[in-house]
Design brief:
6-PGluconate_DH-like_C_sf; Pyrroline-COOH_reductase; pyrroline-5-carboxylate reductase activity; binds 1,4-dihydronicotinamide adenine dinucleotide; about 270 residues; NADP; binds (2S)-3,4-dihydro-2H-pyrrole-2-carboxylic acid; alpha/beta; elongated
Length: about 270
């Protein structure tokens, strides 16, 4: 079991994960934060402003890096005292590989890439994991911890990590853009903006919950919405014309995935 996780950089993503763990009833003493700028920590969670303070406490057996990938090179030297041989280094840093983590924190017990999304806050995030150097016990400890935030899985091929990041880590951003566009389209065609936003959100919420609970795939479900000779088919035809939506999303995921390699190159 991971007794204490030190979250180094607790902004949007680290904060959402911490909120998810606490909402699930985890003991706040199981977590500590090192962040020079976070206004305050949740009740019962220790907040360190400097690495030396966390080092002196020496209470953690894992760290989770939650700062920006572009900061890895400058911050790693100052974090060596926190990443000794009894400490597992977990990282949220998009694009940064296990090999880069091992090079940045060579003394650590093992290295884990972690890719959640913001739905960790409500324990509904997929969490994709990739490790280097962990034994079976440490693998189980990581899976158990991250599974609290939704559904954690090990990926067996790190070459696909940037792609799953684009799909599951960045994915909420694309879904939010879609909801916004749906509401914007209805507004342009004459609906009041507030009503359009409310209906678009409720529709996406209901549709996604139904798909999650259904044995049928989303393609089949779309066909079930489209009554023969009815209205929906006309709209689906617009999305399907020349595989317009499919092509747009392939380009969206490609651009997102490829940025991962660029971030890795810069680190
Ligand atoms: N936002 C998202 O939905 C997701 C983000 N990620 C990853 O999470 C990481 C953080 O992203 P966000 O939370 O969006 O960024 P953010 O800017 O909200 O959070 C970064 C945090 O790092 C802290 N920080 C800055 N310098 C620091 C230092 N020297 N020591 C300790 N902490 C320091 C900041 O004060 C801030 O709280 C990135 O590596 C990103 O790739 C991964 C999956 C999803
Ligand atoms: O935009 C980013 O780089 C991070 C990684 C996945 C979601 N947010």
């Amino acid at each position: 079991m991971i007794n204490q996780l030190l979250i180094i950089g607790c902004g949007n993503m680290g904060g959402a994960m911490l909120a998810g763990w606490l909402a699930a009833g985890e003991d706040p003493a199981r977590f500590a934060i090192l962040d020079p700028a976070l206004p305050e920590a949740p009740a019962g969670v220790i907040l360190y402003r400097e690495a030396a303070e966390a080092e002196a406490a020496g209470a953690h057996d894992a760290v989770m890096l939650g700062f920006k990938p572009q900061q890895l090179r400058s911050l790693a030297p100052g974090l060596q005292g926190l990443t000794g041989e009894s400490v597992t280094v977990c990282s949220l840093l998009a694009g940064i590989t296990c090999a880069q983590l091992a090079a940045a924190f060579p003394q650590a017990r093992g290295h884990v890439r972690v890719m959640p999304n913001l739905a960790a806050r409500i324990n509904k995030s997929p969490v994709i994991l990739q490790e280097a150097g962990l034994d079976e016990g440490a693998r189980n400890d990581c899976l158990t911890l991250y599974d609290i935030l939704g559904t954690a899985i090990w990926l067996d091929d790190e070459a696909r990590f940037d792609l799953v990041t684009a799909l599951a880590g960045s994915g909420p951003g694309f879904v939010y853009r879609f909801i916004d566009a749906l509401a914007g389209a209805a507004t342009e065609l004459g609906l009041d903006r507030a009503a359009a936003e409310q209906l678009a959100l409720a529709t996406v919420d209901g549709a996604s919950s139904l798909a999650a609970a259904s044995d049928a795939g989303p393609g089949d479900l779309a066909d079930r919405v489209a009554s023969p000779g009815g209205m929906t088919r006309e709209g689906l035809n617009v999305l399907d014309e020349g595989a317009a939506l499919h092509r747009l999303l392939v380009e969206t995921l490609r651009a997102t995935r490829d940025k991962g390699a660029e971030l890795a190159k810069g680190a």
